[in-house]
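ugh ok so i messed up the first submission bc i forgot one of the chains. this is the corrected input, ALL of the components this time, i swear. 375 residues overall. if the numbers dont match what u have on ur side tell me asap before i send this to the collaborators (the ones from the other lab, u know who)
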Amino acid sequence: MPKIPVSKLEPGMKLAKPVTAKNGMVMLGEGTELTATWIERIQDMDINNIFVEGPSIQTIAKEDAMDSLNTRFSHVEGKPYMNVIKRIVKEHIEGLYE
Amino acid sequence: MSNIDPKVLRHKVENINTLPTVPGVLKKLSVVIEKPRITLVEISSFISNDPALTTRVLKMVNSAIYGFPGRIASVSHATMLLGLNVIKGLLLGVSVFELMQKTMSGLYEHSLACAIASRVIAQKKGLKEPEEVSVAGLLHDIGKVILTLEFPTEYQVAMNEAQGKGISIFDAEKNQFNATHANVGSWLAEKWRFPSNLIEVIEYHHRPVLAKNAQMETAIVHMADLLVRARGFGFAGGIFVPEVNTIAYELLKLSEGDIKDVLMEMEDNMESAEDIS
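and heres the new structure output, hopefully the right one now
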């Protein structure tokens, strides 16, 4: 789920997490579909970013993510269970780009 | 070669309240949580009297670290739900946040992700108190905060050595301090009268076979720590993934699907990491 600045909200987006006040009070529940009015209210609250439904946006390129994965595992290649763990993590990261 | 005597180090840790580098908020908290017979009510009012602390505690309780359904809106509700040991750990977690940001950038993200992973694994393994395990995950590297705070130059040397030689930060610390963050963390946890299981997890999360009573919890945090590093969340002193302890791995018997679930849960919640602080 992407986290986006309140200035970029558009009607029709759905909240992936509740919008809460500083003290933790829920102002708008999870799953709420945003209308122009709700967006205006949210923009009047002291909030910078909120979570909306949809695929996450990856900030680094997939090739770079794979390179750093290889670097992180570079000292444990072939050690017991490490290849399995690496493969699972690799598949997980690749899944983020689909 | 190191010239730091572990005895001196331990003495420093045990007198953390007198260290000039330790901020007031942590000292104040330390005095409260090391009382032998502190009650839930006392802790609850200590938190409630501090609005900033209240906000942080509520945010944390309502975060993915604990995964409670519904919303917890009051400190008294939170303390009743979590119990003394978890609340003490959580208070410490929120109080060292700024310190972590200052001393080692990325350590807080590492700790949060580890707390989330620990909770998910504990739930998968059917442990009765997954919240206690997630607090252990949150605090497993607390020793690093003290080491970087008190010995910034020496710690930098250790980090450079870890990076340069491709060794773990744990081994680099041993060369530099004759002790590790696991030792330092367990001294602190003892001083703060944390439950023995939590002390064991902190002390043995790099060598989980040495745990006497909390083998499962220690194996969980060991694995959580490793998965966080494997995924590359945060920074905990070195970038390399260490070898998994085979006995801990076999004890946990996590399926491929289990591990993917842990990674996914971290993924979903680390985006909001800054909101949990």
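quick check: The radius of gyration of chain A is 19 Å. that seems consistent at least. The first helix of chain A runs from residue 36 to 44.
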